Amino acid sequence: MKKLFALIVFVACAFSGFCAGDGFTVTGKIESVKGAKAYLIVTNAGQRDTIATAPVEEGAFTLQGSVASLQVASLVFEGMNGQIPIYLENETYTVAIDNGIVITGGGETQRVASLFNEVQRGLNVKGRELNQAFTTARGANDTTRMAEIMAEYQALTEQARAEERQLIAANPNSLASLNSVVASANSADYETLGGLLALLSDEMKNTTSGKNLADRLVKMETVSVGRVAPDFELDAPDGGKITLHGVKAKVKLIDFWASWCGPCRNENPNVVAMYNEYHPKGLEIVGVSLDRDKEAWIKAIADDGLTWVHGSDLQFWQAAPAKLYMVNAIPHTVLLDENNLIIAKNLRGAALKAKIAELLDELPSIKVELPKD
């Protein structure tokens, strides 16, 4: 569901052949909204315009109007958060809001968009089932089942991403494909985003959104695996300064976190155990905090027993290293070798420990005896 509401509005007035019919009609039913209004909103040149309004009576609504060309519109309801994107042409649409959002009708772009939505809807439905199963397993302290559920969800997610790639490849000149790549950009790594962008047609690549994706890819390349990690300087908790390259170690981990980040704090005991085991063998951690409150940051370091190097500019999501490394979610990790080459990114838990073990654990010596004459 989140992906449906994260769509960037894109205007396609310059494209030809998208206009059809005398007007549009959007009908639907939403039981949770009664006595309010439904709106269709488009954004042109940064300005939000309401192009249709209708009352919601007994949960039902009908919106009518016309557009000169294909528009990505947002269906919103008075008093409710979130929005439903519709690839709006002068066609008839039906919106069903029941255990997810299903849009039928519309033109070719909406047809493609609905295929993407169906993939995400299936992932959401199955994800909720797995989440309930995970909660039950956690309550029973069944760690084996918890691991199985996490692996199942990972496989489910990978399958959904593969289906989306197939849709993009089959519809390279669709705005729906372009916006699917846009919606994936923040969470995609360099290789993934590059592969998705390559699937799009030249026409889509030359749109504003397509060019923004290409610019993002160039920036991502500077912090991709195999590149030298860019240096940065931050304030240390004691008021001094730290630099990334100034920290020397056989293996170095940049750990982006914050005192207010629940998943980060939950992960910290595992990171502490890993650090205690591998610091004597050459591991160092550089904690980069996305905090705003210095006292909360320092308290979290002490409370969680984080005895490694720390730095922050207290700029929250605008932290210079976070912007430099294009960090959009935390916890986020970047693993470096002794020459500051990036080895891996965003590993956590068992995967992170396994990689560090691979780099620092010495193979046992083997005594070889030559045969006697």
Can you walk me through this structure?
With 373 residues, the protein is of the alpha+beta class. Helix content is 39%, strand content 23%. The protein has 3 domains: 2-101, Sandwich (Immunoglobulin-like); 111-221, no CATH class; 233-360, Glutaredoxin (3-Layer(aba) Sandwich), CATH 3.40.30. A 5-stranded mixed beta sheet has the order 13-12-11-14-15, with helices on one face. Strands 4-1-7-8 form a 4-stranded mixed beta sheet. Helix 2 packs antiparallel against helix 3 (143-170), helix 5 runs antiparallel to helix 7 (208-221) and helix 8 (262-278) packs parallel to helix 11. The protein is elongated and about 70 Å long. The termini are far apart. The model is unreliable at 1-20 and 363-373 (pLDDT under 50).
What is the second-level CATH architecture of the largest domain?
Answer: 3-Layer(aba) Sandwich
Distinct helical segment count: 11
Residue-averaged pLDDT: 89
Backbone shape: elongated
Distance between the termini: 75 Å
Q: State the CATH class of the largest domain.
A: Alpha Beta
Q: Which radius of gyration do the C-alpha atoms yield?
A: 25 Å
Beta strand % = 15-25%
Query: In the residues, how many domains can be counted?
Result: 3
Order of strands across the biggest sheet?
13-12-11-14-15
The helix-and-strand class reads alpha+beta
Q: Briefly note the CATH topology name of the largest domain.
A: Glutaredoxin
Helicity level? 25-40%
Enumerate the spans where pLDDT stays under 50 for 5 or more consecutive residues: 1-20, 363-373
